[in-house]
Amino acid sequence: MGEVILTMKGIDKSFPGVHALDHVDLEIRKGEVHALMGENGAGKSTLMKVLTGIYKKDSGTITYEGKEVEFHNTREAQDAGVVIVHQELNMLGHLTVAQNIFIGREFKKGIRIDDKKMNEEAKKLFDRMHIDIDPTETMSNLTVGKQQMCEIAKAISHKAKVIIFDEPSAALTEAEIEELFKIIRDLRAQDLGIVYISHRMDEIKVITDRVTVMRDGTYVGTLITKDSTKDDIINMMVGRVIYEDPKTKNMTPPGAPVVLKVDHLNAGKMVQDVSFELHKGEVLGFSGLMGAGRTETMRALFGADPIDSGDIYVNGQKVTIKSPQDAVKYGIGYLSEDRKRFGIVVQKTVAENTTMADLDEFANGPFINKKKENEVAQKFVESLATKTPGVDQLVVNLSGGNQQKVVIAKWLTRNCDILIFDEPTRGIDVGAKNEIYKLMNQLAAEGKAIIMVSSEMTEILRMSDRIVVMCEGKKTGELDISEATQENIMNMATREIE
Q: Mind spelling out the 3-state secondary structure of 6-40?
């Protein structure tokens, strides 16, 4: 690691009702990958928004390349070489790769945009990153992983000296993560300072040099990664020990009735002849690689996508599900993997989101009984330990983990007996994960039946009573948790049925 390029000292930031940052410190060196870790709501994103000029700090100093600075917007930060690669990609699908990279600062030939020059410059960036992407390709035709690479190329095109990666691997496959790590190592070798925000502990050990941990808006400490254990980092993050032992025994009550039966379900090319059963009080894990068809199966089952053929039975009765309203009527709730698009309305309050799936219960003629709505929402804020100043807080102001709890509260308010959790802990830190795991186990113990789709093997092995494995739209196997290992799940996940 080289000399210090960026120091944030005593950074303080408050919003109405929330002290988001309380005298936080951060030091970044040239040629290092520096992890920034903490539970959801710890203040990591807020700190980076203060750095890049999205928020104005209340107090503290930022020193960059030896001078005290304060960026007033992201353009100022980018011009100085401090660039953020966001978790949610900011690309325009209908434009080419090169047009996306240079949007707002296009090369011109007279008054006309010089696409040829942009394509050439984009090609140079990709050559520098050792990746093969056609600058003239339409952005929407690329995989999420390739789009991520374009976002990184865009950051480098600003002549970046500090790059912030915010949960860069959340939507990537294992192969794409390997590509990402190659690029990050290459950038480190070119003496860039890199901030890496992630909840994936295994990645932190592989790619980072130092780790700074935050908790509840405060600075906890900085560790050298190679000299630290996973437990050291977790203890600093949550202030308590968290155990991640796999489940070894099926906890479904003996003789539990089948509450959901799916027979020979077909829906497009990603759901082909899928059959399974779900018992009362069971957590049924759905495992497989990205693109295996797990989410597509759940969306078809929930009526979000059309079914081509197959039968669905709820409590022994054959049912027709053509829309999410039908599914909810039969007691099925769905927590989408994309909570911001399908789970919550971020510009509405915690209370409004909590009651959204069961508005009839709270209606007084054309009006909503706000007192009743607030009481119910408050009950779930307390029982789910949701961190929010109050039930009238807008959901957009909550961390990812707390937004997920609001989605869960929505379906619990509706009192659904069958709950589909699709990637329930994506983008959520280890402490909030643990709370959601506890909650799922508690719901199963109360007799709720849960389907859990997860790409994390440790999560599948920790939570499932039985595991259904899919590959390329087909079910390739089913295992009781007592016989499940990472190896036999992965064998099934890569074995296409002829």
A: EEEEEEEEEECCEEEEEEEEEEEECCEEEEEECCC
> Within 13 Å, how many C-alpha atoms sit on residue 275's CB side?
5
H-helix or E-strand spanning residue 7: strand 4-15
**Three-state secondary structure call for residue 413:** helix
Higher local confidence (pLDDT), 250 or 383:
250
Cα separations in angstroms, 130 against 15, 182, 189: 43, 9, 14
- The C-alpha atoms of residue 299 and residue 267 are separated, in whole angstroms, by 10
Percent of the chain with pLDDT over 90: 46
Residues paired with 18 in a beta bridge:
15
pLDDT of residue 325: 92
CA atoms within 13 A on the CB side of 98: 18
Report how far residue 382's alpha carbon sits from residue 74's, in angstroms, rounded to the nearest whole number: 37
- Look at residue 105 and tell me whether its pLDDT is greater than 50: yes
Tokens of 94: 């209908």
First to last CA, the chain: 51
Instruction: Determine the Cα–Cα distance for residues 495 and 452; give it in Å rounded to an integer.
Output: 21
Structural domains of the chain, with CATH: 4-238 (3.40.50.300), 258-493 (3.40.50.300)
Which tokens belong to 225?
């990664």
pLDDT digit string (tens) for 426-471?
A: 767 677 788 888 889 999 999 999 999 998 888 899 999 999 999 8
pTM of the model: 0.60
Q: Where do we find the tokens 């080289």? A: 2
Give the tens place of pLDDT for each residue, 60-71: 999 999 999 999
User: Exposure of 498 by Cβ count < 10 A (0-12 exposed, 13-18 middle, 19+ buried)?
Assistant: exposed
Rounded to an integer, the average pLDDT of 397-403 is: 82
Cα gap 308→325, rounded to integer Å: 19
pLDDT given at position 315: 96
Max distance between CA atoms of the chain, in angstroms, equals 77
Q: What whole-number distance in Å separates Cα of residue 123 and Cα of residue 120?
A: 5
The tokens describing 273, both together, are 């002849």
Question: Interior CA angle at 415 toward 387 and 274, to 5°?
Answer: 105
